[in-house]
Amino acid sequence: MIDNLDQLIEQYRSELFDSVIPFWLEKSQDAEFGGYFTCLDREGNVFDTDKFIWLQGREVWMLAMLYNNVEKNPEWLAAAEQGARFLMEHGHDGEYNWYFSVTRDGKPIVEPYNIFSYTFATMAFGQLAKATGKKEYEEVALRTWERILERRNNPKAKWNKLHPGTRNLKNFALPMILCNLSLEIQHLLDENAFARTTDDFLHEVCDVFIRPELGGLVMENVLEDGTLCDCFEGRHMNPGHAIEAMWFIMDLGKKMNRPDLIEMAKETALKMLEYGWDKEFGGIFYFMDLKGCPPQQLEWDQKLWWVHIETMISMIKGYALTGDERCLEWFNRVQDYTWSHFKDQEFPEWYGYLNRRGEVLLPLKGGKWKGCFHVPRGLYQVWTTLKEIKAAQESK
């Protein structure tokens, strides 16, 4: 039972609609060239004008999703469509291969090596097609979806710098995000295509990357044949990634009427959270090594905004869908850490990067990796889930 439910619902609603979304609407839009600035300092001043395509797509998606699901706010739709125009004109090579980054006025900087530029373009145009009914947006989403499926087995395509055949690894991130993406664009797919692709993605996540021999922990990389690999990449653990993926699985389980999927995802999220929690300083480690060896990434012990926000989503959904009190206990614990460490008490939006002790490492509000996505999406997801919990309690 959540005692302060009404207060929590208002807390998340107010932070989302009175602070975070107004911040991005005011500070990020490029009135001269279109698209969005994402490199914003603590107060929202632009400190770099390069535009990262996956973050452009994320902001289009965020605004269009709120328009579709919360309120037909013309300001949100206008801001989403201007970002979409920039993406259509400058974000890809004409064949729906989406660059990683472009200059402020849209000249390519980094080639289309990153498949997540594609996934978030698909999400963005899928939501815009739903919001507007425009066929041009639907076509962009579906053409990009086809590109993603073509590149599933080699996500970096010709830009892959690894020598083929020596240590061919496959990564958790793509099947994980595709579980979410297939649900995002279900309205554009026929029933058979949705079922076929979703079953495939679920198999990858549940049967390949979740490892029973490791007590149900989730690996970030395995060899192509599904076996473990004792190397830096093969021992690499990303607790936040795994926990985020589990609320995607919960959403699919709810949609497909699969309580077994929901239960599996809830248990996996709890295991990864217990595994990744820093028992000395609190918070969740960014990266870990399966065998406790020194991690390759020097930022391994940082505490990142998205890890904690995605964990809050998984825990509150796990509680709402199963009633497991462990999820509520962890939600409260992670929520206390997140709101007390990442929320800027003076200026809007949240910090992204803390050191292990929980001190602000970088005061920026956006950059190359942080944009209008995890904070507002997390606030939205927790807000709506809390409202569902309230409705369920009132119906009893």
Layout of secondary structure:
Elements: H1 5-27, E1 39-40, E2 46-48, E3 51-52, H2 53-69, H3 74-90, E4 101-102, E5 108-110, H4 115-132, H5 135-150, E6 169-171, H6 173-184, H7 191-209, E7 210-211, E8 217-218, E9 221-223, H8 232-235, E10 236-237, H9 239-255, H10 259-276, E11 288-289, E12 303-304, H11 305-322, H12 325-341, E13 353-354, E14 360-362, H13 374-395
Antiparallel strand pairs: 1-2, 3-4, 4-5, 6-9, 7-8, 10-11, 12-13, 13-14
Helix pairs in contact: 1-13, 2-3, 2-4, 3-4, 4-5, 4-6, 6-7, 6-9, 9-10, 9-11, 10-11, 11-12, 11-13
> What is the multimeric organization of the chains shown?
single chain
Biggest beta sheet attributes? 3 strands, antiparallel
What is the radius of gyration computed over CA atoms, rounded to a whole number of angstroms?
A: 20 Å
Q: Count every beta strand, where a strand is a DSSP E run of 2 or more residues.
A: 14
Tally the helices: 13
Task: Give me the secondary-structure category.
Answer: mainly alpha
% residues in beta strands: 5-15%
| Unreliable segments of 5+ consecutive residues | none
Sequence of secondary-structure elements: HEEEHHEEHHEHHEEEHEHHEEHHEEH
Question: In angstroms, what separates the terminal alpha carbons?
Answer: 13 Å
Shape: globular
Mean pLDDT: 97
Strand order of the largest sheet: 3-4-5
Percent helix, as a range, is 55-70%
Question: How does this model look, in words?
Answer:
The strands form six sheets. This protein has a three-stranded antiparallel beta sheet. It has a three-stranded antiparallel beta sheet with strand order 12-13-14. The radius of gyration is 20 Å and the shape is globular. It starts with a helix and ends with a helix. It has helices at 5-27, 53-69, 74-90, 115-132, 135-150, 173-184, 191-209, 232-235, 239-255, 259-276, 305-322, 325-341, 374-395, and strands at residues 39-40, 46-48, 51-52, 101-102, 108-110, 169-171, 210-211, 217-218, 221-223, 236-237, 288-289, 303-304, 353-354, 360-362. By secondary structure, it is mostly helical. The model has no long low-confidence stretch (mean pLDDT 97). It has 13 helices and 14 strands. The longest helix is centred in the N-terminal third of the chain and has 23 residues, at 5-27. Helix 9 runs parallel beside helix 11. Strand 7 and strand 8 (217-218) form a beta hairpin.
